[in-house]
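Bug #77: duplicate submission created two jobs. Keeping one. Sequence:
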Amino acid sequence: FNPPSKVVYFCGITYEIRDVN
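Kept job's structure:
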């Protein structure tokens, strides 16, 4: 199972990265 998006935590900031490829 691969989620359509992943959340990364970097330098106190949360980024949501979506792979729409």
